[in-house]
Amino acid sequence: MGRAVRPSGRPTVIECKGLVVLPGLVQAHIHLCQTLFRGLADDLSLEAWLAQRIWPLEAAHTEASVHASAMLGAAELLLGGTTAILDMETVRHTGAAFEALESIGIRATAGKCLMDAATNPPALREPTDKALSESADLCATWHGAAGGRLRYCFAPRYAPSCTGPLLRAVSDLAERTGATIHTHAAETPLELDTVKRETGHDEIAYLDSVGISGPRAALAHCVWIEKDDIAALARQQTNVVHCPSSNLKLGSGIAPIPEMLAAGCRVGIGADGAPCNNRLDAFTEMRLAALIQKPRLGPDALPAAQALELATLGGARALGLGAEIGSIEVGKCADLIVLDLESPHAQPEDADLISRIVYSARAADVRHVIVDGRIVVRDGELKTADTAEIRRKANAEARALRAKALDRH
Amino acid sequence: MGRAVRPSGRPTVIECKGLVVLPGLVQAHIHLCQTLFRGLADDLSLEAWLAQRIWPLEAAHTEASVHASAMLGAAELLLGGTTAILDMETVRHTGAAFEALESIGIRATAGKCLMDAATNPPALREPTDKALSESADLCATWHGAAGGRLRYCFAPRYAPSCTGPLLRAVSDLAERTGATIHTHAAETPLELDTVKRETGHDEIAYLDSVGISGPRAALAHCVWIEKDDIAALARQQTNVVHCPSSNLKLGSGIAPIPEMLAAGCRVGIGADGAPCNNRLDAFTEMRLAALIQKPRLGPDALPAAQALELATLGGARALGLGAEIGSIEVGKCADLIVLDLESPHAQPEDADLISRIVYSARAADVRHVIVDGRIVVRDGELKTADTAEIRRKANAEARALRAKALDRH
After folding, report:
1. Taking a contact as any Cβ pair under 8 Å apart, which residues of chain A between 58 and 77 contact chain B?
2. What is the third-level CATH fold of B25-405?
C-alpha cells in the first residue's frame, strides 16, 4: 500500500464511458471458511445454528477445504464489487486461507479464530498458549504480505469462547504488531447474559477492560447495546460492523446504527458468513442497512448516502485502512469498481446516482474490479482464477465436509 | 389460458442441463406507471412521498409516458423472472399501459386507478361516474385480451381516496365481469385513522361492508392489522399482498404475514412501485419476506419454502389464476423460468435447492423466461422488445415528467 504504481510500457486503458466508477466496497465482517456451508443451516436460531451445523462443519475442515472455501467466497466477493474484507477463519488451517487470498487478489485482513474457553466444543477448543503462538506465527508470516494487500487480525471468536488471559494477550499482540482485532459482540441477549454471569460485566465494558476496544478493534453485530454502550464505543472509536442480513436471518434483531452514527461511532458493514445470509453481497447489505431502520425511526433514517459510506469509508476504517482505501483520492490505493447501470432496473438515468447505487443496483451490475492497481475482474469475469475450477473444488470439498460432519446427510 | 399449445412443425428445444426450471414468479402488487419515478422520491414518509412526488408525477403522465413506464417496468420484471403481475396504473392513459403489456408479452392483470373522493389532489380526482364508466370500458376492451394473458382489475387507490358509492359499484362491476379488485389497505396508522373518522369503521371491516373482500379482492400491504382482521381476511379468503421492501422503505412497518398464513389467509408478494423499493425484483422480495419476520418471531419463522410459495401460488391466487399459473402442472399455462445457479454465489450445488433459490439466487441468474408458451427472455436477453429503445424512451419521458411536475429539478 502507498506504493505508487509506475506504469511500465503502455498503460492499460479501460473504456468506462457511461459507466460509474466507485471506490471498491469493503465488507468488515466475513467468515470465508463458512462459504462451503451455504444452504446447510437455514431457518435455525444462532445457538442451534452454531451447535448443530457450524461447529461440526468447522471442526471437519482440512487445509484443502479451507482453501476451497476461501476461493469460493473471495470469487463471489470480487465479482460483486467487494475489494477488501475483514475475515475470521476457523481455528485451523488459516495459512491455507491466506494462500487463497494471496492468489485471488482481494485485499484482506484475516485471522485464525481463537477459542480457548472450557465451554467450547472439544473439537475446536485449543489451549491458550497454542492459540496465541499459532496466531503470532501467522501474523509474522502474513501481516503485510503481498505488498501490504494482506494483513493479519487477531480473532477471538466472541467473549464467551475466550478466557480473560487470552483476550488480554490478544490486545497486547495487536498493539505490538499493528494488527487489527476482530471479534463478535452483543449479537444476542443470551451472549450478554453469559458474559455478565461469567465476568460480572456488561459485554462492551468487559471487552474494553481486556483491551478489546479502540480504533484497532472491530466488533461485529452490536445489536443488543444500550445508550451507555453507544457512548463508550463512540468515545473509544471502536469499530462496529453492522451485518443486517445475518442479524435478520438468525433472528438476532436490528442494531441501532443511526443512534451509533449520531453518537459519532465508526460503523462498517459486512455479510457475515454464507450460511447466515446467504449472499456475500455488499449491495444487498447496503440496501438492507438503509431499509431496516425506517419502520423504527422513520423513512428518512439512514439515507442512501450514509449506507454507501458504511460500505466504503466505514469498512476501510474498520480494517485500519482509512487512509489507504474507501474513497477515490490522490495517494490512496487503486481499489476501484466500475458499475454498468444501463439495465432497465437502474433507469431512469437522471435519477439521484447514490439512490441508483444503493437502492437499485446489484452485484451483477459490477463490470470491472481493480484491487491495488491490478484488474481482478474484467467484463464481469474473474481474471485471477478459473471460476469453473473454483466451483468444482468447492463442491467436492463441501460434499466431503457434509459427509464427515453432518450425520443426517 | 388453458389453450393447449399445439406445436406446428419442429418444436423449439431449450437445453436446460444443470439449470433449474421453476414456475414463473408472480408479483401481485406493482405500479408500472411509477417506474419512471424511480430514484426521484427516496427517504421520504408515505404522505410526503405521495404529496410531493407521486401525485404530481402521476398527474403529469401522458399516453407516451405511461407506455414508456410500463415497457421499462415490464422489461425489468421479465428479465428478473416475474411472468405475471397485478398492476395498478394511474387515473389516465391506462389503455397505453395495456398496449405495452400486450406487446412485451408479460401476463398482467391491470387497471385504471380510481380516485373520486373530494380529498384527492385536484389534478387526479375524477367524478365517480367518469371513473366508473372509463373502468368499465377498459374492462370490456382488455379483460381476456391477448388470448387471456391480459385481464382487468378494478383499482380503487385506497379507501380514503374513494367514495362509498364508487367502492360499492366496483364490487358490483367486478362480480359482473369476473375481474379482480386491486387496492391498498392498512398500510399506515394514519390511513386507518382516516377511514375510522370518515366511515366509523375499521378499514378491513369497512372494505368488506362495501364488497371489497373475498377471493376476487387483493389488498396490498395489510401492515397494521389486528387479530380480528386476520381472522376476517382468512374467513373471506381475501388476498393479502405483502410488499416487504416498500413497507420498510416508506417506514410503514412489518406485516404480520406468519400470523396470516397460520390463520389460513391467502398471501402473495409484490415489489410495489419503483420509487418505493427501488427494484421490481421478486428474488429481493422473497428473501426479504423470509428475513424480516425472524427478529420478531424467531429464525424458523417464514422459512424459505413458504417464501417461494408466496411468490408463485400465492400470487397466482391473488390474480384469480390459481388454477392456471403458479406451479408446473399438467393443464396449467406454460409460464416458466430457467435459473442458472452455477455462479459462485449459489454454490455449493448440493445444498438445499429451495434455500439456494430464496436466499442466494438473484434476478440476474434468470436465463430464460417463457410466458404462455412463448419465449420472452432467452439467454438473459429480452426477445419481445428492444431494451436499448425502451431505455431511450423511458429516459426521454422521465426527463419530460420531471420538468413538468417537479419544480425544484
Report:
1. 72-73, 75-76
2. TIM Barrel (3.20.20)
